[in-house]
Design a protein that fits this description.
311 residues, two-stranded antiparallel sheet
Length: 311
């Protein structure tokens, strides 16, 4: 979706051009203040802090090698780092995304600033090793920050390899992922029985099933939570097109629907980092604003969800 409405019905592009006013000059240049102000969440197993807004790459970073094709992702990655972002998540199933992340990260000199996360998505030990080694090459790193088992595919086999790689220093953290509520029972079984560092799952203001079991389980087992599909693959924006933000959104420093949806997610204490995906710089800047200022508490989050249901 190329245009997302704010409270007055204008687009995210218009919001960032007009609504931020004098602050736009600060946002569009490297800003240590903005980076320092980002909400940080600790990885439960180690206490390592991570910014609460990350960057997904599904579809958005699956581009070719020409400068024109990479212009959007390049500017997005540059601004992401300037705004204090670190966690960037990819997968072998995302086409050229891993390569684009690696190439652009090296070009922009971000090698030591990003927290690189990708996945293994195949069956069999040897195939898994080959795929993970390819991911290291594509993303131009000797050690992956986070390697996840994509959609739990052959997870028992791959988890054994991930444990070996972690012990040998080839990955720092290991985890599992899925993108649908139908897999929650399987995710819960692995979370409850295995020693993992991260789980990545779908969660949004309209898809809240994770609150019933998975998010409390993550807190109990000290597992960091990455959130995919925070905008329901842009479906949430279709729902609010032309609709006004409630005036009380200002109570938690919210100025757009994107921030509304992301701040709802970050308001849950189990969430470590949300992963909105975009190749559009103006959307990246809007998303990053969700990591600044106040966040809603439990009562306000319910009020946010109720308001959305009435639209």
């Amino acid at each position: 979706m190329s245009r997302h409405p704010d409270r007055t019905g204008i687009s995210r592009r218009d919001l960032l051009r007009l609504g931020l006013g004098a602050a736009a000059g600060l946002i569009l240049s490297p800003s240590l203040a903005a980076a320092a102000a980002q909400h940080m969440r600790k990885i439960p197993k180690t206490g390592e802090p991570l910014p609460a807004i990350g960057l997904g790459t599904w579809q958005t970073f699956d581009v070719g090698i020409s400068s024109d094709e990479r212009a959007g992702p390049r500017e997005v990655l540059k601004l992401f780092a300037e705004q204090g972002g670190r966690v960037i998540d990819s997968s072998p199933m995302y086409g050229h995304a891993e390569t684009v992340v690696g190439d652009l990260g090296a070009e922009l000199g971000l090698d030591d600033r990003l927290f690189l996360a990708t996945k293994v998505w195949t069956t069999g030990r040897d195939a898994g090793i080959r795929q993970m080694e390819a991911s290291l090459r594509k993303m131009r790193t000797q050690r992956m920050d986070l390697m996840q088992i994509h959609n739990l595919l052959d997870w028992r086999t791959q988890l054994r390899t991930l444990r070996d790689w972690k012990a040998n220093g080839r990955v720092r953290y290991i985890g599992i992922t899925h993108y649908t509520e139908h897999a929650y029972d399987d995710l819960a079984r692995v979370m409850a029985s295995e020693d993992i560092d991260f789980v990545q799952l779908n969660y949004s203001i309209l898809s809240r099933a994770a609150e019933r079991r998975l998010l409390p389980l993550a807190q109990e087992k000290q597992i960091a939570v990455l959130v995919n599909k925070p905008f329901e693959t842009a479906g949430l924006f279709a729902r609010v097109r032309g609709k006004a933000l409630p005036p009380w959104a200002a109570d938690f420093d919210c100025r757009s629907w994107a921030q509304y949806f992301l701040k709802f997610i970050l308001g849950h204490p189990a969430v470590t980092c949300a992963l909105p995906a975009t190749a559009k710089p103006q959307h990246l800047l809007d998303n990053m604003q969700a990591g600044l200022g106040r966040l809603p508490d439990a009562a306000l989050r319910q009020r946010m969800a109720d308001y959305l249901q009435r639209l």
